[in-house]
Amino acid sequence: MRAHLLTEDQRDCLQEITNVAMGRAGDRLARLLDVFVVLSIPHVSILNPTDIAMALHSLNRESNDVVHGVCQGFIGGGIAGEAMLIFNGTDFNDLAKLLKYDRVADEQAEYELLMDTANVLNGACLKGLAEQLDTHFSFGPPMLLGQHCNIADLLQNNNMTWKQALVVEINYSIENHKINCDLLIVIAEHSISGLVEKLNYLLD
Amino acid sequence: MTTTNKEMTKFFEDVHWLMDILQNIDVGLVVMDKNYKIALWNSFMQNHSGKAPEDVLQRSIFTVFPELSEAWFKHKAQSVFVLQNATFTTWEQRPYLFRFPHYRPITGTAEHMYQNSTIIPLMDSKGNVEQICLIVYDVTDTAINKMAQQQANNQLQNLSRTDHLTGLFNRGYWELRLIQEFKRFDRYDQASTLIMMDIDHFKKVNDKYGHTVGDDVIRQVSRAMKEQVRDLDIAGRYGGEEFGVILTGTDAQGAAVFAERLRTTIEKMVVISEGQQVRFTISMGISQLSDKIVDHRGWIEKADAALYQSKEGGRNRYTIAS
């Protein structure tokens, strides 16, 4: 009943191109960070706000603390959405090591680290995706989740202007580092037309 | 004029007004090469920094602005060169990149301009990133508003948590913390002990000396409690003359030491109020959290029962719940 946002073929196609995009992203990240990045096969699904809230919740099952996450808007080629990066089981010191920061001095430095990581990971993935779709995305500045609002509460609020969204979920982990995060690329129904058009073009 | 000449004239006209926009747009624009040598410096940067283009062009940005952390900035810029991907800084993490004065020197309240910035890759004709552009936004007004809002929220939060007479946590917030502590025990199994206490014969104090004196007595007890609790302990006013303290990471024996100290302090205390000298005592009930206690209410009930025993036993004492 929810499947009408994308046909099965379109969905397979998207799965395929995100897979290629992730391969590229992994390669770029390896060059920037000198580490091997383990990327899961992207999982494409259609979700409503409550589903996403639940997904975020389950990603955060390890603790009752605030979700450490960063979201970033992107737009281009008739596609618009948000990339949400959720950190679970991530050690700040390992993250600092990864980005070659000297040390994590205080809370602000931790936040900056999260933002920078998110920007690098989101950027690599979305750039790969944009390339596959033969377009170019503009990015908004990353926003920390949980600092000013609780993301799950926000999504469970019934005032959302969208009812369902396309979600591509990718898990990242980094060899020899205690870093594990999930990237959700969320494209709302009202900004999906550009994507459908491009997928159809690729399918023809 | 030949066609080529016309085209050239048109091209220069176009470039001219494009440059005009870049120069006059009210955001800072700095173009740098791989060695961080400045190749473009627009009027925003020029006017706010007080440095003319001839002073900065072809010089390293780190020489021109020694306060800009070289390691940090290179680090940020590196991902732009390698990933060909924009990167961002926000005032919340780093108030500014360049210390510029406030745009409104007369009515502005901030000491400096708050800045967000974006670093974007500039591609050459071969698709390589040889230069980057730093865009600096003045977000001082947003920053000040947000900080004022946050401060107001914090004040409201404190007000809503505090008991006005004593400055201890009020009952609502204290119970919330009690619930949290109960849950924490469930997960981590670390000792935690609750003390419920009550001022002995408080009604008589009120009847004999009046409510103003009664209030002073309550304030003095609260002060004594605040002086003796540690940072991690949670002290609240539970009811009229009843108080609760959660001693985290403390067992019943540790809590008994605390209780005895507080008891003697208060026994020796003389409250002078409205020209009267008032002496009084407190009774306490101590309950260490255990697996047998099923919820936070059960925990309070146990401590309350012990408090009742102290009252029955002659007051001015503590009892450890069995």
What does this 3D model show about the protein?
The complex is a heterodimer of chains A (204) and B (322). Chain A is α+β, with helices and mostly antiparallel strands and 204 residues long. Chain A has a single domain, classed as Chemotaxis protein chec, CATH 3.40.1550.10. Helix content of chain A is 43%, strand content 25%. Chain A has six helices and eight strands. In chain A, strands 1, 2, 3, 4, 5, 6, 7 and 8 form an eight-stranded antiparallel β-sheet that branches. In chain A, helix 1 (8-33) crosses helix 4 (107-132) and helix 1 crosses helix 6 (193-203). Chain B is α+β, with helices and mostly antiparallel strands and 322 residues long. Chain B has two domains: 3-146, 2-Layer Sandwich (Beta-Lactamase); 162-320, Reverse transcriptase/Diguanylate cyclase domain (Alpha-Beta Plaits), CATH 3.30.70.270. Chain B has helices at 3-24, 43-49, 53-56, 61-64, 70-83, 140-161, 171-188, 202-209, 211-228, 252-268, 296-312, and strands spanning 28-33, 38-41, 87-89, 115-123, 129-138, 192-199, 234-237, 242-248, 271-273, 276-278, 282-288, 318-320. In chain B, strand 11 (282-288), helix 11 and strand 12 (318-320) form a beta-alpha-beta unit. In chain B, helix 8 (202-209) crosses helix 9 (211-228) and helix 9 crosses helix 10. Chain B is elongated and about 115 Å long. Chain B starts with a helix and ends with a strand. The model of chain B has no long low-confidence stretch (mean pLDDT 91). Classes of the chains: A alpha+beta (204), B alpha+beta (322). The A-B interface holds A 28-29, 31-32, 99-102, 108-109, 111-112, 115-116, 119-120, 123-124, 127, 139, 141-142, 144, 147 and B 71, 75-76, 78-79, 82-90, 92-94, 116, 118.
